[in-house]
Amino acid sequence: MIALERLWTAEEVSEFLGVPVATLYQWRHHRTGPPSRKIGRHLRYVPEDVMSWVREQE
């Protein structure tokens, strides 16, 4: 059986990274932040994508 992780909300990523939610939306607009996906009207993040993005930052 495949273990599925719950997607993170913008608020959860904001808290994890210590940045305002507005910053996440700016990063998305400029395509500079962690990869995100729109699920309907909602912005969601795959936790491993966020972790990978963090590891790539210098």
UniProtKB/TrEMBL annotation:
The family database entries (InterPro entries) matched by this protein are listed as: DNA-bd_dom_put_sf, HTH_17, WH-like_DNA-bd_sf
Give a single Pfam family match: HTH_17
| Helix-turn-helix domain location | 9-57
Query: What is this protein's name?
Result: Helix-turn-helix domain-containing protein
Which species is listed as the source?
Microbispora catharanthi
Print the organism lineage: Bacteria, Bacillati, Actinomycetota, Actinomycetes, Streptosporangiales
